[in-house]
Amino acid sequence: METKEKIEFSGLPLAVYREIVAHLRQVEGVKVSLIPQSSQQFDYNQGQVGGFWLSWTPNSNSESQQRVQQILAYYQNLYGI
Q: Is 54 in contact with 9 (CB distance < 8 Å)?
């Protein structure tokens, strides 16, 4: 069974979201897709992306999950989020 979770980092630019997604897609058993910004009002600080969906496929394992947490922690530390 596939598990899906939504991850949001407010205020990150589109390029950074794409970098995170590209990094996460290299982990076995993980699927990632960007979520378009849903706000009807333009806000420069909001960013172009609303977040991303992170899906764990049935063949993911604890090593994959640990790697994903390391990647997310890296970007959280790098961008102070």
A: no
Relative to beta strand 3-7, strand 49-56 is antiparallel
Residues 6+ apart with CB under 8 A from 12: 47, 49, 79, 81
Q: Are 55 and 11 in contact (CB under 8 A)?
A: no
32-75 per-position pLDDT tens digit: 999 887 766 766 555 678 889 999 988 788 999 999 999 999 99
Looking at the DSSP assignment, which residues form a beta bridge with residue 49?
Answer: 36
CA angle (21 as vertex; 66, 75 as ends), nearest 5: 60
